[in-house]
Specification:
This protein is an all-alpha fold. Helix content is 66%, strand content 0%. It is globular, with a radius of gyration of 17 Å. The mean pLDDT is 81.
């Protein structure tokens, strides 16, 4: 079971393990880091399904328009916002899911994976899970707080 926000002292536990790993640079520190990753990694049942994650999502056509407009409006040479990368990654995940459902994974799946990894970079999230599962989790959280 993963340490969740609802559990007492979850932040203190993760913080203590992070501090210990930072002070110990030998193989023991690596073992502590591995343990921290295992503790904080959500169990498979904790990830929302695509249906749950995208239940409140606008149509893919609407999201394609929003993503294109946000990219066009961004000043040249600047990075996209977290919202941009989240919505783009979710859009590409939804397109890839459709392709995978009909048995034709390919470019869409690769693009969805790249966008998901970019969102994880923006969030400075450790890659301890399937990046597309991370996108679904974050999108579900985002839409529930809109």
């Amino acid at each position: 079971m993963a340490v969740g926000e609802w559990q007492p002292n979850h932040e203190a536990t993760v913080e203590a393990l992070d501090e210990a790993a930072a002070y110990i640079a030998d193989s023991a520190g690596q073992r502590i880091n591995t343990a921290r990753n295992l503790i904080t990694r959500p169990a498979e049942k904790d990830w929302p399904t695509p249906q749950q994650a995208y239940a409140k999502a606008p149509s893919t056509i609407s999201e394609t328009g929003w993503t294109a407009q946000a990219a066009a409006d961004r000043p040249f040479g600047t990075e996209g916002t977290r919202e941009f990368w989240l919505r783009k990654a979710a859009l590409l995940d939804r397109i890839a899911l459709t392709d995978e459902h009909v048995g034709e994974p390919g470019d869409a799946s690769e693009a969805a994976d790249r966008a998901a990894r970019r969102l994880m970079d923006v969030d400075d999230a450790a890659v301890i899970c399937n990046p597309r599962h991370y996108v679904r989790q974050q999108y579900a959280l985002w839409t529930n707080h809109q």
